[in-house]
Design brief:
CATH superfamily: Hotdog Thioesterase
Number of domains: 1
Number of helices: 4
CATH topology: Thiol Ester Dehydrase, Chain A
Helix content: 10-25%
Low-confidence stretches: none
Order of helices and strands: EEEHHHHEEEE
Oligomer: single chain
Strand content: 25-35%
Shape: elongated
Structural class: alpha+beta
CATH architecture: Roll
């Protein structure tokens, strides 16, 4: 069984970890302004991302955070804690699922577990499972990265 590291007391890149080791990032609150700016910058004009009224009319509690924005914030949290500090290349994500809504004002964090490590001539090829959780610890997204 691996170690479980919490960001507040730890800084260690994935290459120095062992298979089975886990990390938990700090949380970050997502604002309504960033949702709207990023949706507009990316050209994602889906009404549920830009309007409280439209989101409610489509059955949501309130204005939604785009799933890809949650993923971007999650990567940022992993980079800031040092887990992805020395990454040379992102190879891909598999089995990605969005499990529940994230709304502006929600805080998200990431739990990750190292699942594989292989030394290559260019460096380490590392794999990990990740779960994005909201402020209630509910899983809102998950996947596997290389």
């Amino acid at each position: 069984m691996g170690e479980h590291y919490i960001e507040d007391n730890w800084r260690k890149p994935i290459q120095e970890m062992e298979v089975g080791d886990k990390v938990t990032t700090k949380s970050r609150t997502i604002t309504r302004t960033e949702i709207e700016l990023l949706a507009l910058l990316g050209g994602d004009y889906a009404p549920q991302f830009l309007s409280e009224r439209a989101a409610k009319e489509n059955g949501w509690e309130r204005q939604l955070v785009p799933g890809v924005h949650c993923l971007n914030v999650a990567y940022g949290l992993l980079i800031q804690m040092g887990f992805l500090k020395d990454i040379i290349a992102y190879m891909g994500t598999s089995n990605m699922k969005f499990l529940g809504p994230v709304y502006w004002g929600d805080s998200i964090r990431v739990d990750a577990e190292v699942t594989s490590k292989k030394k290559t001539e260019k460096g380490w090829l590392c794999e990990y499972d990740w779960t994005i959780r909201n402020q209630d610890a509910a899983a809102v997204a998950e996947g596997h990265n290389i």
